[in-house]
């Protein structure tokens, strides 16, 4: 029995991948003043509107009802696995759990497992693709749950900020500090912590240096990395992302690359020019 995979719009998966792997998406919502879009909005339009706006757009999670309606739309004879953006950034995970309770109270007997991915963007997309491939390979629901929980624990997510404009606009840094950092050409390397919080790894002068440090992070984990797949998302900097991945693959040749356009949710945080990577690192099992 094929298991049904659901994730949210923060996964940044393309329409082609969603259809190819049969993944269901519950969108998040993006608000530019009185205008509301969902997370599937055209990325060119999103970055243009964000560039033109003095204030950052606001994002909101899918409601429990949004998840409930997706659950009800699927085949009730098949179990469901739900992967949500880190609960450290969004209430999406909790709303998916609430919808699960609503669904079960209606008397449905298929199983639903909701997993906090502890990551976002390409990290969440990476896990959703892994789940869909494992489902198609014929794994049981229990096996799939266990494998995905292990993947969540082992997934490493790193991303670089090329501009601090959105950090300043969002009130996470004073305008004075942001101006000084820009004058000094400071770039920030960040990661998703083991709990799924976004934390600063280091501050580096220059775009090429911060991207090199991201490649170094892959190198640190390469001995125990799952080399079958790496995911990359970029925030409106496709050529830079392709060159970065070419440089990475020269040193650390993964078998497959999942290229994604960073959508509105993490794109609002990162601003333009950001690059995010995610891959699986089993080194913790050897500590």
Automatic annotation (TrEMBL):
Keywords linked to the UniProt accession: Lipid-binding
One Gene Ontology term of the molecular function aspect: lipid binding
SUPFAM superfamilies cross-referenced by the UniProt entry: DAK1/DegV-like (SSF82549)
Superkingdom of origin: Bacteria
GTP-binding as UniProt keyword: no
PANTHER family: DEGV DOMAIN-CONTAINING PROTEIN DR_1986-RELATED, FATTY ACID-BINDING PROTEIN TM_1468
Name the UniProt record assigns to this protein: EDD domain protein, DegV family
Species, as recorded: Paenibacillus aquistagni
């Amino acid at each position: 029995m094929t298991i049904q995979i659901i994730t949210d719009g923060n996964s940044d998966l393309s329409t082609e991948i969603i259809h190819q792997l049969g993944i269901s998406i519950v969108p998040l919502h993006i608000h530019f003043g009185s205008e509301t879009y969902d997370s599937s909005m055209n990325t060119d339009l999103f970055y243009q509107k964000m560039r033109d706006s003095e204030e950052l757009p606001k994002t909101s999670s899918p409601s429990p009802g949004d998840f409930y309606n997706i659950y009800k739309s699927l085949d009730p004879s098949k179990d469901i696995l739900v992967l949500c953006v880190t609960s450290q950034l969004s209430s999406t995970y909790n709303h998916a759990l609430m919808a699960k309770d609503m669904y079960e109270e209606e008397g449905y007997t298929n199983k639903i497992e909701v997993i906090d991915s502890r990551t976002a963007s390409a990290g969440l997309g990476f896990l959703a693709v892994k789940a869909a491939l494992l489902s198609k390979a014929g794994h049981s629901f229990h096996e799939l749950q266990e494998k995905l929980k292990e993947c969540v624990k082992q997934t490493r997510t790193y991303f670089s900020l090329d501009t601090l404009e959105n950090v300043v606009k969002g009130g996470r840094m004073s305008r004075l500090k942001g101006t000084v950092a820009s004058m000094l050409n400071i770039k920030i390397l960040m990661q998703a912590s083991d709990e799924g919080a976004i934390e600063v790894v280091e501050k580096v002068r220059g775009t090429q240096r911060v991207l090199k440090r991201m490649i170094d992070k892959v190198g640190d984990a390469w001995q125990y990395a799952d080399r079958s797949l790496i995911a990359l998302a970029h925030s409106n900097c496709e050529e830079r992302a392709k060159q970065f991945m070419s440089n990475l693959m020269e040193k650390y040749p993964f078998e497959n690359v999942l290229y994604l356009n960073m959508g509105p949710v993490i794109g609002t945080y990162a601003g333009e020019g950001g690059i995010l990577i995610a891959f699986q690192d089993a080194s913790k099992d050897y500590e």
